[in-house]
# Entry
Amino acid sequence: MTNDAALAGLTALLKRAHVLATVGELLGWDEQVNLPPGGADQRAAQQAALAEAQHAAGSDPRLGELLGALEGQREKLTTDQRAIVANARRDYDRATRLPADFVQAKAAQGSRGYHAWARAKAADDFAGYAPVLEKNLEFAKREAGYLGRGGAPYDYMLDRHDPGLTAATVERLFDELKRDLVPLVREIAGSATAGRAREAAAKLKGFPVAGQREFLREVTSKIGFDYTRGRIDVSLHPFCSGTGGDVRMTTRFNEDAPLDALFSSIHETGHGLYEQGLPVEHLGTALGIHAGMAMHESQSRLWENQVARSRGFWRFFEPRFRGVFPAQTAAIPSDELYLAINAVEPTLIRVEADEVTYNLHIVLRFELEKKLFSGELAVRDLPAAWRAASRDLLGLEAPNDREGVLQDVHWSDGSFGYFPSYCLGNMLGAQLWYRALELRPGLEDDFARGDFSWLLGWLRENVHAQGRRFSALELIQRVTGAELSPRHLVRYLRERYGTLYRA
Amino acid sequence: MTNDAALAGLTALLKRAHVLATVGELLGWDEQVNLPPGGADQRAAQQAALAEAQHAAGSDPRLGELLGALEGQREKLTTDQRAIVANARRDYDRATRLPADFVQAKAAQGSRGYHAWARAKAADDFAGYAPVLEKNLEFAKREAGYLGRGGAPYDYMLDRHDPGLTAATVERLFDELKRDLVPLVREIAGSATAGRAREAAAKLKGFPVAGQREFLREVTSKIGFDYTRGRIDVSLHPFCSGTGGDVRMTTRFNEDAPLDALFSSIHETGHGLYEQGLPVEHLGTALGIHAGMAMHESQSRLWENQVARSRGFWRFFEPRFRGVFPAQTAAIPSDELYLAINAVEPTLIRVEADEVTYNLHIVLRFELEKKLFSGELAVRDLPAAWRAASRDLLGLEAPNDREGVLQDVHWSDGSFGYFPSYCLGNMLGAQLWYRALELRPGLEDDFARGDFSWLLGWLRENVHAQGRRFSALELIQRVTGAELSPRHLVRYLRERYGTLYRA
# Structure
């Protein structure tokens, strides 16, 4: 068989598996957005049947044969073809090397773990949760072993979400970030302006949902989300799912916190633009999938923060916002509205954190995860370690474990290694932002005219259209000409908040 | 293997195939309700991948082995077990006896046929559509041949939707119906009251969608639709899909025709109650599926017509309707509203027909379909035959084929044999209605108190919970003690419209 024939065969099989995966994703979306409670059992059965079909498609022996043949001819492949083969190998190994009984036992443990966590959180009972965490760590290490990464199980966990990422890299980046960010947070949070910003945000009350919906629809369309290739609905927790021509975002509305739905929608729009920007003809292969969760997060954060909290953005949208909500905004001067948009307040809870302190919540989790995997930290000592780290990093100490180590769902089903991508996304986003500004210094003037096309076009070409040809770290180097560094994020936070809060 | 073990194995395989079918149904619902236009290609790929998985599950050789074993022990099976085996055999033969290239060619022809029909209808060009119809007939006959029904292809078409139904039975029933109904329609449509009823209906204008939504939600809940196990959304054409704990209905709103969304929702609620009433533990086998499309239609028609057009029903709901729409209904006296609800007007278009004349539209289609299959009628002579039948049955003649033979989509993708179930459903519904009235003469007094529980309970027990143990004709005999007859439908139409229109 020629390489071209082998690649065509491989691509067809990959696309088949991918299409089934998109069905599973749609079922997941529907579960959050539409499913009546009585449909829960049937939905579980549907997901199980689909997982079986997906697994059969992803572990098809023909995939293994074609991969073997192509890997034997690696030197004759183009860069794109190598990327396709490498990514397919990664998925194929994961589909075939985990014994079926292990996969089942892990799924059952994940489900038990979730319920144990929910109980433990409600009862503020870490001791009742500790055995679950120990078991989850054990499962994670065994899984890494099956994939040949038994010697570096935490690296394996990171790599699952961001191909090629290692704990050593994350540690180096986070140490540098921490050094600058901890004093910056102290400085900002302690300023008199921080108090004024929080008061301004608290004054935004009584914004009807219909108006919020109209305004966020205008904003997200203007930014570039294509509603002929996607939609937005309501769910308990905002998320974005789907790809290509059918990208589905969700949000949630609170009449007394209109900026929440707006900024969460802009965040999801960033994810959605990435998915809409992948080349549809390559969906299912490395050329048609995002470059990992960190790069994904960079897109959501860049639009949410660098773009939508900028002066230029609000020069265009403030009159429109006031137009939709004349009564609610009449007594709020322009500078106060902008302060509300950029309110910063250290909090114990990650999901409530502002964009400055959010990063420290992630650093905290990374450091503890890493030590759990290396054995430096025992599960039973986790609550004390959490409190100590929270004091050091955030200057806050939780009065209980519910608002401390028990706050996140992630570890309950074994999702280790995911947290870092949130903060790496902020770093990547800031670095992309300054590169874009170098190329087009008048970017904020574009925004002030309601024109986001240059920025979107540049991201489309340099990030979205690249698919997974490169890892996030390779891609940022190619696009910006420099290695990933936290200094761009620190610069951005300093410029935005340092300036604003001294003003 | 014992019969119990074989049945357990069979049931597990059937449930697996059924669960995949429910995923396909959900994708279909989502396509009508949510899909952005850009997602059409991906949706087609998803349905194709799912159809492949479904076909693999439905043609699993283990199914054939288990069926063979159980059929060899038929005399030792209970009635329920025989029903399970017979229904599984029907599906298995259909999944395995049609050659793959035939299935593909037929699907492609169906898709081409749909587009050819849409073009021909727009251009009023029957000649351009005729070759498609000829090809579709040929495919239908070949399909019947593969399933061993080559000698009676139209019986096979009917049986696909209603197990056990034959053209001879339908013909006998329809001939009898026609004899009584044609003069009744002339009598009703020509009366002075008919004109008043149409004027009353035309006066209902300016009913905001939000109010319509609220009112139909109240009505459908009160009737018994369980919204913790289902939902209602908006689509271009109303339909009901899903089963068990997740039943999804749709409707569409017109501010100037508030009764349309209301009655179409009650119609879909009838379908939905049937699906919600199937025993969930048996979903996937004959004990957990409806008894065919005619019986399904009987449920939608019974709630839509016998129940929701009754005096008792409106004694309860009229004050509520006026409460939601005080301004819109102020000038409409009670008897006029009731006339509007029961307006009758012969029309050329089936989907716009009232419940009296609707049946004649079906008789017309059945008679032509039957002759097309027997060869008595050539496709090229269809337009003339349609016009003649329309004149005889409805007293109307279409000025063109667009409003005549080209009006329906069904034949364009080869869906022959489906039309009769609409009219058989009306007959079954009326016969069930009079049996219910015999058992509980005060049924309309229940409705006047807003109590629909006796009727729903009786249908649950006697129809819904029976699944497909019996064919529709067997089931109606068991429930009412008599063979299916059109005289109950004629009696009902005479009682409702004869009385009302003479008043």
